[in-house]
Amino acid sequence: MNRLDFLNRQCTDEKQCRFILAACRAALTAGFILKDLYDKPHTITMKGEINLVTEADIAAETAIVASLQEDAPDIPIMAEESAEESPQEPKGPIWVVDPLDGTTNFAHGFPIFAVSIALMENGRTTIGVIYCPLQDELFCCWQDGGAWLNGKAIRVTETDFLVQALVATGFPYDIHARLDDVLSQMRAILPKVRDIRRAGAAAVDLAYVACGRLDGFWEMDLKPWDTAAGWLLVEEAGGQVTDFTGKDYSPFYPEVLASNKTLHPLLVDQLA
């Protein structure tokens, strides 16, 4: 059975179904490339002091762009390796793509990374797909259609006390300039929660909040391709996504806080 057959059963809107299938096909194609290249020697270039690009980023992005252009040729694509450093929020529909979220992990052989593909329309994500190739986990969602992992519905946790919460965070590439902010956040949250994880891939962290493996996640200095798909995934799984102050979220604003709706105001208080 085709692993995407469940989408034809669950997604009743013809247009949504077409686009979610396009995003899933592109993510699976890129994931096959990443899995194939994972244990081979890598060609690494630097976008910043600790910001890497590998041959796998480029190969995966090329495959995603080709796949999306075939399935949805009228929609422009904003992909990490070919986009501007600080992209502006578009007005019309656009694919927002991270071909390899967790490049540093990939380059070091640390097996946590993902493909992230979102369709945004007028500032809102309407389709979201995150694929973790090594685990063969395909997370997907569409507006008002719920959140899914390998064809099964997923939900955020019901944890209601910080002391019971397992949360995650990430560190910015300009950590030297933001070290005081990062340490301040850690001092505020670490004593209040059960523990903190730092996996190194924001898309994966958001997917893990959506499926209940994590109770919450926060990070600063992110790009739209890091969070555009995970934003909708968490919300469709019953969670909440805002900035650190609890205001409405946009992937074009460089900080994100995601959790279930009970913990969310408690985490906002700590980050404040």
What would you note in describing this structure?
- This protein is α+β, with helices and mostly antiparallel strands and 272 residues long.
- It folds into two domains: 5-153, Fructose-1,6-Bisphosphatase, Chain A, domain 1 (2-Layer Sandwich); 162-271, D-Maltodextrin-Binding Protein, domain 2.
- Helix content is 36%, strand content 24%.
- The protein has helices at 5-10, 14-37, 55-71, 103-108, 175-189, 202-210, 224-236, 264-271, and strands at residues 44-46, 52-54, 77-79, 94-101, 114-121, 124-132, 137-142, 147-149, 152-153, 166-169, 195-197, 216-220, 240-242, 255-259.
- The strands form three sheets. The chain has a seven-stranded mixed β-sheet, sandwiched between helices. The protein has a five-stranded mixed β-sheet with strand order 11-10-12-14-13, sandwiched between helices.
Write the layout of secondary structure elements.
Blueprint: H1 5-10, H2 14-37, E1 44-46, E2 52-54, H3 55-71, E3 77-79, E4 94-101, H4 103-108, E5 114-121, E6 124-132, E7 137-142, E8 147-149, E9 152-153, E10 166-169, H5 175-189, E11 195-197, H6 202-210, E12 216-220, H7 224-236, E13 240-242, E14 255-259, H8 264-271
Parallel strand pairs: 3-4, 10-11, 10-12
Antiparallel strand pairs: 1-2, 4-5, 5-6, 6-7, 7-8, 8-9, 12-14, 13-14
Helix pairs in contact: 2-3, 6-7
